[in-house]
Design a protein that fits this description.
The structure holds 2 protein chains of 2 kinds. By secondary structure, chain A is mostly helical. Chain A has helices spanning 2-35, 40-54, 58-71, 78-104, 107-115, 120-150, 162-173, 176-208. Chain A is flat. By secondary structure, chain B is mainly alpha-helical. Chain B contains 8 helices and no strands. Chain B has helices spanning 2-49, 53-68, 71-81, 91-117, 120-128, 133-163, 175-186, 189-224. The radius of gyration of chain B is 21 Å and the shape is flat. Classes of the chains: A mainly alpha, B mainly alpha. At the A-B interface, helix 2, helix 3, helix 6, helix 7 and helix 8 of A face helix 2, helix 3, helix 6, helix 7 and helix 8 of B.
Chain lengths: 209, 225
């Protein structure tokens, strides 16, 4: 009986996680490329974005996006608000991850690509990103796991994910210890396989090197 | 935009006293949780490095479980979940314990990798000149490992500080709870949550900078060796 509701919540949790992961990767990649340009205002902009979003709690960001924006007339549904909020916060983290990945490559790689006649975009697409990908894979995997856990905070803006259903079940049945233990088990059952998968991908990409 | 700041600065004197008290609670919550995390984390790290395979397994399982469940779930279990067993904690205590035992799993990994980063020759040399294992840990391994562990530990403190916001969901009277209360009284959620965000930023950013500075210095020191 409890399990069905919690599983419905798990579906929404995964939905929020995948949406936020997509946004975070897109923002992180874009910002990391901006941060590696030579244009100082762009780099300053990226630095401000990263510092602000990395030093403010996810819950505060969600409240600003969900309750704050509603005050100025932009009313978002809970799930999109959670996806955007967690995605923006994750984007700041991934900017740092991708930037480190790009900068870990020897600059000779980019110079060589340009020297054989590739455009800068082609150099990024075919030379830089494929190599940086292997470097960023482990932190990206760890981020996915922490993102899945962070979706629990979205219950505070009434997104119907696992914790939201858990709290609802508790007010209805008063089986508090049982329900929250089940919830913990459910997160465990979702996070452990992702952890294994990340470890395996990591091993495989290392073997390739 | 101008109206936004006008309201903000008009109301700030009314909001500030409550927010200031709440900020104190947030800092206290983070401090207690972090101290607990350090103590418990060190114990877990030592258990994981010990010779007894039972201790190692218990520590590993604990760390794995804690790293796989959200902080919010830990807080709910400690605040609501153990009430039927006859234990009631106030929100601040439950918050510090929850955040502390959760962060301990991450702190343990920081300690473990810091201790393992010290070349084993250091330990062997200390043992061969007649130091006891305890003396070796105390005088040789830990002083060197501390320098390596400090930047990630400060980053962990930032994580704990940000996670205190989640304690508002178990009604601990910290920044987010006050901001929420005031937002529903004054109908100004945008201003209040931005204020809350700015307060967290003001507390977390200096720590983040400190961690980064320290890390850079450490990198420089290592490169010369």
């Amino acid at each position: 009986m409890f399990a069905a509701a919690l599983l419905a919540g798990a579906f929404v949790s995964i939905q929020i996680m995948l949406g936020a992961l997509g946004i975070a990767i897109a923002i992180g990649l874009f910002m990391a490329l901006l941060a590696t340009t030579r244009v100082v205002p762009l780099r300053l902009f990226v630095a401000c974005y990263v510092e602000v979003f990395r030093n403010v709690p996810a819950l505060t960001q969600l409240f600003i996006i969900y309750f704050g924006l509603a005050q100025v007339g932009l009313r978002l549904q809970p799930i999109p608000a959670a996806i955007i909020g967690l995605g923006l916060g994750g984007g700041a983290l991934l900017t740092e991850v991708f930037r480190a990945g790009i900068q870990a490559l020897h600059h000779g790689q980019r110079e060589a690509a340009v020297a054989v006649g590739m455009t800068p975009i082609m150099a990024i697409r075919y030379i830089i990103l494929p190599q940086a990908w292997r470097i960023v894979l482990p932190p990206l995997g760890n981020y996915s796991i922490s993102l899945l856990k962070e979706t629990s905070v979205a219950s505070a803006i009434a997104a119907p994910e696992i914790m939201f259903y858990a709290r609802q079940l508790v007010t209805r049945s008063f089986e508090t210890p049982v329900i929250y233990s089940l919830t913990a088990l459910l997160y465990l059952a979702m996070c452990l396989p992702i952890g294994r998968l990340v470890a395996r991908l990591e091993r495989r990409s290392r073997a390739w090197q | 935009m101008i109206e936004f700041f006008q309201i903000f600065f008009d109301k700030l004197p009314q909001w500030w006293p409550e927010m200031q008290t709440a900020a104190g609670r947030t800092l206290l919550l983070a401090a207690y949780a972090f101290i607990l995390a350090i103590i418990f984390g060190l114990a877990l790290a030592l258990a994981k490095l010990s010779r007894s395979s039972m201790l190692r397994r218990v520590a590993s399982v604990y760390i794995e479980i804690m790293r796989s469940i959200p902080t919010l779930v830990v807080l709910f279990i400690i605040y609501f979940g153990i009430v039927p067993l006859g234990i009631t904690l106030n929100a601040l205590t439950a918050g510090s314990i929850g955040l502390g035992i959760h962060a301990a799993a991450y702190v343990a990994e920081i300690f473990r990798s810091g201790i393992e980063a010290i070349h084993r020759g250091q330990r062997e040399a200390a043992l061969s000149v007649g130091m006891t294992p305890r003396q070796t840990l105390r005088y040789i391994v830990l002083p060197q490992a501390t320098a390596i562990m400090l930047p990630p530990l400060i980053n962990m403190l930032v994580v704990v500080l940000k996670d205190t916001s989640i304690c508002s969901l178990i009604s601990a009277p910290e920044i987010m709870l006050r901001a929420k209360d005031l937002a529903s009284t004054y109908f100004r959620p945008m201003q209040l949550y931005v204020l809350a965000g700015a307060m967290y930023f003001g507390m977390a950013w200096p720590l983040s900078l400190l961690a980064r500075l320290w890390g850079k210095q450490l990198g420089r020191g290592r490169r010369t060796i």
